[in-house]
Amino acid sequence: MGCKCCSTSNISKDTKVCPLCHSKSEKVGEKTVLSLLKEENYDLVGNQEFYYCNNQDCDLIYFSENTIFYKKDLKITVDDKACFCFDISKEEVEKEGKDKVLDKIKANMKSTGCSCDVKNPSGKCCMNQIEKDY
Q1: pLDDT tens digits for 10-67?
Q2: Would the CA dihedral through 77, 56, 126, 33 be positive or negative?
């Protein structure tokens, strides 16, 4: 289950610990970081490796050795979404059920494609996360 735009071949398995909440955080591509940051933060990205903190209770979203970005630094709100490409909320998954939502995502992927690498803060397809969480 996944999509072409966010294949694991372009995402490293490297992990680091979030400096704020100490959760395991995975490396994320520069394309993802730049696509979601507010424009005034672009100059802070530079040539660095960034990691994504997936802990919903943590205010930090991306960090590198020298730079930290918080959820407030993004153009989007991350806490209520299950699927960023097709604007599906966590509430919708809980209400409609995981299988129905996954079928909806698959149908949308076939008809319009997806953009997980630039819409999802993790840079990955949401389907595996939905499968795991619900």
Answers
A1: 445 789 999 999 999 999 999 999 999 999 999 999 899 999 999 999 999 999 999 9
A2: positive
Tokens 């979203």 correspond to 61
Average per-residue pLDDT in the chain? Answer: 91
- Tokens, residue 67: 């730079």
Cβ contact 58:67 at 8 Å: no
Nearest to 61 by CA among 91, 32, 85: 32
**CA–CA dist 67, 14 (Å, integer):** 18
Alpha-carbon gap, residue 25 to 38, rounded angstroms:
21
